[in-house]
Each structure stands twice: as C-alpha cells, then as structure tokens.
Amino acid sequence: MTAGVRSGLWVTLEGGDGAGKTTQAAALEEWLRGEGREVVRTREPGGSEVGMLIRDIVLHHRGDIAPRAEALLYAADRAHHVETVVRPALARGAVVIQDRYLDSSVAYQGAGRVLDAAEVRNLSLWATGDALPDLTVLLDLDPAAARGRLDAADKPFDRLEAEKVDFHERVRAAFLGLAAAEPDRFLVLDATRSPDELARDIRDRVGAVVGDAAGN
Ligand code: TYD
C-alpha cells in the first residue's frame, strides 16, 4: 500500500467466478495461522457492515443498474472497507487475505460493462487513497470450465454470474492484461491444477514476501 504507515502484508485473490478463490484463501489463512501470524480474512464487496448493504444491491437487485452506478457502488464499498478494515489491520501488523479488490472492478465494470479501464481504476484509487496490495493471486480459468463448476455447485446465480459467456471472456482477458502490466504484484496460476498444488505455490510466494518483510 503506497499511502500510510503499515507493517502487515496485504494479499488479494482475483479471478472469475468459480475459480476457487475461497478455497485458496482458506488454505492460506490456515497456514499463516499455523505460522503464528494474525490473519484478517475479508472480501469485496461486503467486507464491512455498510459493505454488506452495498453487496446486497450490486448482487441481488432485481433489474438493471447503470454501469457507472455499479462501478460507484463497488468503489463506495471499497472506500469504506479499506478505511475501516484493511488499513487498521495492516497498521497492527496483520496479514490481510482478501477475496477480490480493485482489479475486479477494472475487469468486471471496465471490460465486462465496457467502461474505460483507466477511469474505473482511478475511481478506486481515489476511493482508497491509492491503496494497492503487496501481492495479488490471479486464479485463471476458462469461463466455460468455471460455468461447469458453478452449475455443479447448484446455487442460484447472482447478477454478475448470470452474465453471458462473452462477458466472462472479456473479464478473463482483462485480468490477464492487468497481471501482464504489473508482473511484480501478480502471481498468475492455472486454476485447473489441483487445490493442493495451487495452495503450495501461493504459500511459497507469500512465504517469500513475509520473509522479506521480516528482514530475513
Ligand atoms: P464474489 O464475492 O466473489 O462472489 P461469490 O460470493 O459468488 O463467490 O463476488 C461477487 C461478484 O461481484 C462477482 O461476480 C464479481 C463481482 N465484482 C465486480 O463486478 N466488481 C468488483 O469490483 C468486485 C469486487 C466484484
């Protein structure tokens, strides 16, 4: 994070719906707790009380939401979440493991809803005072395979999940483009690999960063 004093570590997980972010966040949390670290596991949208209200609108409102309004709602959730949850956790030295952050807005609202990517990113940077994670894990998965996983889970689709496959193909391409533009921040993994293999790669990378932060 570029603004503000911090001593913790901030890891975000990104990828299409059904890529396995929740499984990997849980595995990373378990490992870090075993290492004796304080872990704050959180998500966007909905990582705060206000965020839960916004999450309900963006995911479950019946009917259209104008693309710019949708982008602003995610940014509002993000502003409150970073200020009230993420910054305090980092300031006291915790590891924050976060399901989705601003890269999701650039991919879903930018490429998916076809808003200008730089504008969407700048909106989130304004909302958060330029906060960027130390590491972003991108679980990359073909939308057709992801759709199979979501169907198998047999849960009703939310507003974004219900979008057509070409929307999700644009989202995937945008995530890969973001990762290519910031190779130091991103770790890109093939989400068709086994959960254990993915967890090991994520642990290796986080372990290296935690080691660096401790001066090892
Ligand atoms: P998520 O919590 O990952 O869904 P689930 O609970 O089903 O795993 O994300 C909710 C949806 O919100 C997801 O389809 C992606 C979308 N989203 C955006 O469109 N923009 C954003 O900025 C964020 C954070 C999420």
Automatic annotation (TrEMBL):
General function of this protein: Phosphorylation of dTMP to form dTDP in both de novo and salvage pathways of dTTP synthesis.
Thymidylate kinase-like domain mapped to chain residues: 13-202
Catalyzed reactions: dTMP + ATP = dTDP + ADP
Pfam families given in the database record: Thymidylate_kin (PF02223)
Recorded family membership: Belongs to the thymidylate kinase family.
GO BP terms in the entry: dTDP biosynthetic process; dTTP biosynthetic process; dUDP biosynthetic process
Ranges in a coiled coil: none
Enzyme class, first EC level, given as a word: transferase
InterPro entries: P-loop_NTPase, Thymidylate_kin-like_dom, Thymidylate_kinase
UniProt: ATP binding residues: G15, G16, D17, G18, A19, G20, K21, T22
Record keywords, A-Z: ATP-binding, Kinase, Nucleotide biosynthesis, Nucleotide-binding, Transferase
Gene Ontology, cellular component aspect: cytosol
EC number: 2.7.4.9
Protein name: Thymidylate kinase
GO molecular function, one term: dTMP kinase activity
